[in-house]
# Entry
Amino acid sequence: MCHQWLVAANCGADQETYARVRQEYPGTGQWFLQKNRFRSWFDPNFCSTPLLWMNGIPGAGKTILASLVIEEAQKLQDVHIAFFYCRYQDNDKSTFLRVARGILSQLLLQDDGLLSYLYNKMSTSGQVTLSKETVAKELLEIALKAFEKLYIVIDGIDECEKDERHKIVSLFEKTWESLPQGDADQLRCLFVSQDDNIARKDFEKMPSLKVTESDTQRDIVTYVTAKSLRIKTKFDLTADRQLLIQDQIIKSADGMFLFAHLMTSYLLDQTSVAELENELSPEKIPQGSTRLEDMYLIDKHCVDLGSGEAALALLCLGYLVFEGFDVEYDELDISERVPSGYYGFLDYAYAYWSRHVDAYLRVHDTNESTLREVSESAEVFMDMYWTQPQTKTVVPKSFFARWELLKDNRNFDELVVAGYLAQRQLVALKTHATDAQAPKLCNMLTKVRECLENVVSPANATEKLRLMYGKDIFRCPKVHCVRFYSGFSTAQEREDHVLKHERSFFCSFPGCAMAILGCATLKELHKHETDFHGTFDFDDDEAEYPDLPPRTVSYDCTQCDAKFTRNFNLKNHMRSRHQAAESRPTYVCTTCGKSFGKKGDCDRHETTTHSRAKSFVCGGELKDGTPWGCRREFNRGDILKRHWTSAIGKVCMLPKQQEEEAEAASSNASARTSTVSTPNT
# Structure
């Protein structure tokens, strides 16, 4: 359940991909492992540079080197490793929150002690997934300090936005700085990025290791030699011509491994010797630091980001106004269109039409005809689906300003609101409803899905229908949920899943039904754990969201006419009025032995009368005045002891234990010295 809450990126798949690349060319990157600065960082027994920034020019093969470091670290004994590969414009791999999720998910698999702490946080967070940076920061700081030797590798950190990159680097820096001086090498961090002025500011406090052209030359020669032999074989070239091509690519690569890879792959894609020779002409091959992708994406206009996003926006908008989506038309028969795969693109178009419009507007060029086409398609789309939402929506100024390029649209104001609501659905927030998109659009999705569930159900579906719509047709209505697209095999599974979105406060006691079903509010969770488990730490944060209006419930006494709104009051009434005195439970003070008829009275007596009932605090001061512990207060001593047995509590207790061990060792040494020095009489 904790891993589902983290929703972490699959870092292991990335590592396997880059490891396979290296396996094709044995020996790749071995030179890096011999670098003195790297060895001083990597040595598990002695480390002079716990934080290290590896940098180089774009395309130098830094990611492949990072995968090699990870693989070597995984071979070390008594060393734990966690890593993350950042990716530009990939929301799952370019933010502090995603990096934190990825690292936490890996550390959770390596230390069972973190599980209980993370589970408690998840249970009381009120979040279906970990979506608060403050919570992620707290969890990550604790997890990083829970290991005796931990290596962290973060590749491509320059592909994150400036603010996100700063959050990532500063958290690891501050965590390392907070470690005791004797444990300075407990945490090792390797950050991998391009060397530019912007990134340099974030890494100014740590030593750097630059990957130069001379470093990568041997790997590039090995790689290009193998590829050029394939070119020779495909086009039946002479050995001399193959060597000329090999030298030409190596010289043009200028230390960029990526250039060598893209250029050789491009040449292998040619279909004739004439085409090959044309692409190898001096005016065709990029020289110096010119990137090969410029030739593809800019010079040849093979791919244009703006036109690509515009095409996807037009595809989604145009698709959603097909006549098969006009569910308000009485004669429309959705089931007739299902067998043809008519609705196979619906989930994606519904979820991402606004994101593609927004992405196009971000990179809009001077092509006014494309802008008009997008505007016209959006106008038709709004005519078909717009109705005023029940609640007023305030659109952020930045979003509104970006969409002002469409200000000539007849439905501009409505379009901006609909676009913002559609994008807001992609984020797991508690503050907006499932139908936050234009109401007619939501209604259309609901009706089409209801029909699909009947036609493509497991009992009726053919293999062709399953291929077009998937085998799990019962899908979650929450757009931000992965089950919006993949779904479940039965309606009951879907309903059980949806409850988790609505009831996102989970009981922390294993085996309890509420640990699976959850509660609607934190207050309800407090009451449940108090009533059914007898204890709860009320020092946690209050719920952030308003509770639902309470239902009016009457609890009637079966022996008189008394009525109560709470079952607790009814029980007290039954005990005090209708239960024989000898059969009533008694509660005895554990200090003085005084008896009470109510547990609350006994607890109040112990709290106010006996000093031992004061709050229990994790922490204190060492003899040198240094504070220890997390200073967290607990209502009961047994809860404090349970805290100290957890992975987090062990970290709190460590300074105190070290002091006691040092005193014991000193005392033993003194005793031995006294025994040796005292003469026999």
User: Anything to note?
Assistant: Residues 117 and 648 are 7 Å apart (CA to CA).
